[in-house]
Amino acid sequence: MILLSFDTEEFDVPKEHGVNFTLDEGMEVSIAGTTRILDVLDRTGVKATFFCTGNFVRKAPHIMQRIIESGHEIAGHGVDHWSPKTSDVSEVKRIIKEELGIDVKGYRQPRMFPVSDEEIASNGYIYNSSLNPAFIPGRYMHLATPRKPFLKAGVLQIPASVTPIVRFPLFWLALHNLPENVYHLLVKRVLKGSDCFVTYFHPWEFFDLKQNPQFRMPFIIRNNSGKEMCRRLENLIEMLKAGGESFCTYTEYSIKKIEELKKEQL
Questions:
Q1: Residue 45, burial from CB neighbour count under 10 angstroms (0-12, 13-18, 19+)
Q2: Cα–Cα distance between 257 and 249 in angstroms, integer?
């Protein structure tokens, strides 16, 4: 099963590189990128999960409506991506309910940083996808954490996929920078030992970053961005479909997986 997701947030990466960047400027980039993502998903006919910040929900109602009408899932991703707060777990759920009338079932913390398990459970989420079980200096140090989905306090934890043994992360940066055939081979390797492949991308990756040097993006981020990233995503989806893999939303997977894990515990 393929769990494809997009962290649908305002573009704030330039701030990490000393660029003064406003919320409205960030939204302009992310709206353009999300539009391209939705076009790819329409062409390929697959469903995905969009982890949305409260800022994005409020400032891009037309995009949110298109996500809903296309049959994709909406989940929580904090409120302001640049300034996460403990209250975001409950606040983003309230915002999405208020703006869209949807009771979201899943959450992902901005930048895949740790989030309180108690907050997740007490706010009625059934899954949490805030774990990248890899070692990336300066970002993640999770070599001892599970690589596959597991239950914790009644909530399904859905880690991003990494390769066995060396735990090479197969998230967005990998598809930007690895040769496509190598990335596809590693994805197939993960699927041989797991019932799912979990990956995530961001709208701003699908914006033409190379044409905007004022953003000061590192090469590994701007490499193969924009239309080239659209092509790579579409190729990945078609490769997986050709191999007989199915796509589903995180909630659809979680409902079945939680039941399965609970039976194993009996």
A1: exposed
A2: 12
CA distance 223 to 176: 6
Residue 142 banded pLDDT, cuts 50, 70, 90: low
**CB count, 10 Å around CB of 263?**
8
Half-sphere exposure of 237 (CA within 13 A, CB side): 22
> What DSSP designation does 43 have?
H
DSSP-based three-state secondary structure for 48? coil
d(CA 24, CA 5): 23
pTM over 0.85, yes/no: yes
Query: Which candidate, 88, 90, 250, places its Cα nearest to that of 158?
Result: 250
Query: In the block, which residue shows the tokens 């997701």?
Result: 5
For the residues of 145-211, what is the DSSP string, one character each? S-SS-EEETTEEE-PPPB-TTT--B-SHHHHHHS-HHHHHHHHHHHHHS-S-EEEEE-GGGGS-GGG
Q: Whole-angstrom Cα distance, residue 178 to residue 44?
A: 22
Contacts of 220 (CB under 8 A, 6+ apart): 173, 176, 177
Tokens read off for 72: 């994709």
Per DSSP, 86 falls in state T
What are the DSSP E strand ranges found in the chain? Answer: 2-8, 49-52, 73-76, 106-107, 127-128, 135-136, 140-141, 150-152, 155-157, 197-201
Is the CB of residue 183 less than 8 Å from the CB of residue 201?
no
Q: Kindly indicate the confidence band of residue 114, based on its pLDDT and cuts at 50, 70 and 90.
A: confident
Tokens at 195, concatenated: 């019932």
Percentage, residues of the chain above pLDDT 90: 83
